[in-house]
């Protein structure tokens, strides 16, 4: 079930009514309703994979309880590795089996040995990368004794399968979300209204910005060999806003929907395209994944506490793993490596934590220096996204080589006839979107800035967003991160 579908528009109010009016007398029944609704939400896509979620839930619930009573450190470590092996095993099979098989065959073919082996027709379960990391964080935190394991299987099932963030995050930690299932929720009108406001903004990002940009990004990337340089640059920029509007839009809808049910999820995007360096970008982009890799991979590897070699090694490991997490393609690994190369100079000179505050905080405009830094960081980000979007490494390299030609200074040649108006409209919408994001950059989400304004101004903004969604909603596109 997709957030931008009629099905969800019917599903959400129905669950909301049952949650607050039919099950509000019992916390256990409320939690059970969340589990049931979450399984319906996920099963709407493919009910067969509900067994994976249930199996993962049972395994980590059981291992968590055993970790609590086991005193032997050796046995506790074995239990932890059992959880890691099972969870990563399922993820590896469904997501990476064909990738490793194809590359294994290609490696032998390179040395003149032909191996006959067919790939499997494996369907990737939606959201498996997200709920796998969520359950793993529970087991690891229980092992580290940072969290007491739960005895409430229904609450734990609700934590694992919570439908607003089940298929594309944010990746919640058990230390934040699980305790919220233990305490009675009381309906908070102001929190619900704030949730609806964030849902509206998320829908605008997805339907108006991402889906319109996707139409042109797909057209250019899918026909890049016949495009001139200026068209290729435009395609990369369109994809840059497509993936941000798409993914951060999903996170906004997920966080807003959670508020309707009395839950608080953590911010997943903090206006990353206003970052002044790549280190700041990664503190603001997909925050739940970046911090997950920091806490459960980077720091255990030694972080940046050692010498130069350890800093370089650990930085490359975390970015390469992050790239590989996104998909079984060398393009994602190249994207991760490229970001590591961008990040390393800042780390080595000790400037990776220079920009911790909001840019131009309390000011209307950035300084000229800040503007140049933002533009430079944005340019590097756009360049890296080419690898992320490309179908293969040759496609990415040919796309980049195609940019560096004299046609860079010509008019984009993919635009013709009616498309001129559509492209200009999309550019105007993106520009307005950026202005709103800039104005609201000190808040959790952009239009939260306007909730303290006058009633007329607030409702004017809401109506403009709704009308924009109805008028300029692009062709319905799946959320990009569903494939990860």
Structure description:
The protein has two domains: 6-186, no CATH class; 191-276 and 355-483, no CATH class. The protein is 66% helix and 0% strand. It is built from 17 helices and no strands. The longest helix is centred in the N-terminal third of the chain and has 38 residues, at 73-110. The protein is globular. The two termini are 16 Å apart.
Keywords for this entry:
mainly alpha
Concise account of the structure shown:
The chain has 484 residues and is an all-alpha fold. It is 66% helix and 0% strand. It has helices at residues 6-22, 27-46, 50-69, 73-110, 128-143, 153-161, 174-177, 189-222, 229-260, 278-284, 287-298, 308-326, 330-348, 368-389, 393-403, 419-439, 455-472.
Overall strand count: 0
Helical content class: 55-70%
Counted by DSSP, the helix tally is 17
- The H/E string reads HHHHHHHHHHHHHHHHH
Low-pLDDT stretches are none
Tell me, what's the shape? globular
**Alpha-carbon distance between the two ends:** 16 Å
For the biggest sheet, the summary is:
none
Radius of gyration: 23 Å
Average pLDDT, to the nearest integer? Answer: 89
β-strand amount? under 5%
Q: Which class of secondary structure composition applies to the elements? A: mainly alpha
Tally the structural domains: 2
Secondary structure elements and pairings:
Layout: H1 6-22, H2 27-46, H3 50-69, H4 73-110, H5 128-143, H6 153-161, H7 174-177, H8 189-222, H9 229-260, H10 278-284, H11 287-298, H12 308-326, H13 330-348, H14 368-389, H15 393-403, H16 419-439, H17 455-472
Helix pairs in contact: 1-2, 2-6, 3-4, 3-5, 3-6, 4-5, 8-9, 8-16, 8-17, 9-14, 9-15, 11-12, 12-13, 13-14, 14-15
